[in-house]
User: Fold 2,3-bisphosphoglycerate-independent phosphoglycerate mutase from Lithocarpus litseifolius.
Amino acid sequence: MGSSGFSWKLADHPKLPKGKTVAVVVLDGWGEAKPDQYNCIHVAETPTMDSLKKGDPDKWRLVKAHGSAVGLPTEDDMGNSEVGHNALGAGRIFAQGAKLVDLALESGKIYDGEGFKYISECFEKGTLHLIGLLSDGGVHSRLDQLLLLLKGSSEHGAKRIRVHILTDGRDVLDGSSVGFVETLENYLAELRGKGVDAQIASGGGRMYVTMDRYENDWEVVKRGWDAQVLGEAPFKFRNAVEAVKQLRQAPKASDQYLPPFVIADESGKPVGPIVDGDAVVTINFRADRMVMVAKAFEYKDFDKFDRVRVPKIRYAGMLQYDGELKLPSHYLVSPPEIDRTSGEYLVHNGIRTFACSETVKFGHVTFFWNGNRSGYFNEELEEYVEIPSDSGITFNVQPKMKALEIGEKVRDAILSGKFDQVRVNIPNGDMVGHTGDIEATVVACKAADEAVKMILDAIEQVGGIYVVTADHGNAEDMVKRNKTGQPLLDKGGKIQILTSHTCQPVPIAIGGPGLAPGCRFRRDIPTGGLANVAATVMNLHGFEAPSDYEPSLVEVVDI
Assistant:
């Protein structure tokens, strides 16, 4: 115990025994929605998850995984894997992503931070370039934040500003990009009226330009680099509204796949390539589709494509996009300071821990679970296993992904007797759900269910306890809907596929032969969320949770 009186020692739970192996299973992108043909979890054969749902009603319930439950600003903000695993591991709710940026912009704190000071040294002689997704979708970025950053930057000395836009149509309706560009153009005109040289310099659709993720296709990033840095693109326009309107007229054109374009002056010269002495900020707050472009801007040794010209710039992200890689090294808004996570407490109390997933979600069940912290708390008590994900293909091509390999590894860890807790993320529902391929997502959900069965069978063998939950919704609703819940159709009468996460609640189930008699979900926490899971798991290990954690979902009643 330190001088502050703090102790890592957890009190024993009065009614729940110690010594049981606990499996904590997180199904990624597995929400609860009405059963219909667009609910891939409902359509898929998922006998294991079905049996949990249809079993003891005191041992299955729903929890919130979006909005304020995971630290996001509004109940319209869908959850994601990063904030979800932060909440699952931390046991408390921390301001996240968009909310952190909102707080920093509202208070003006963003302009006092190291990141802004770093880029502002370019304002006297150079240009400030802002690159990011232009929409109010609130998943990767928000238009109102961009406008506030433009205002604040100009008030803090930026005299020449160029915006490189990426059109959305994925988290918002296809076709909405024109309106967003018009809003931005109107605001830039206001800034020009105040003597700031501010204009749009380039653009392109988010899925075709800049915003690739997981190193799936570096050509996407290269197209952005060519337009933003080199000022080169297959299309040149005098203004961005005209650009988006014209490019949308091509057959099968959509906002998210618009080709790259540059804005040129009357002589055909690009108005805003990035050059030596400039500052660059990627304005997205969500990390996954910014990591690759951050590497292109930040890394000296870079071999993913020929950058042709590498300008000497000052680059910062809106946030740090990868805490493990410390990427980027400069950022405008600091991450939440998450301390005293459940993982750290449990290791201090002797709980031997095994964590496993495949590459695309391995960081979630380790780094994000542990409060954005890399590495082990105690190497002697912990083992983290990463199974390499398929690379170079989209996930609907192999929708089973590595679910069965993950299941086998976790099963073996349980049966080895070496671990008190096994923690696992099964990514299929989310990663395949994002492709929009309904048939493949059905296959993905079946594979995830099979992996859960392997884990629960092993828990049965060792007399352990399981907790099965999810981090946010995705696969349970694959179609965009109107306000009455009916599927939206495009101009050709086809359903509009939903590729994003959802705001649906997610299931949590407890069970296993090691679960104490009379242990059940409490009935007085109807609005429980992911942050309640940490205290729940601590209880099932036989410990009381720290007093400032969100309350446990379980109680023990006399039977």
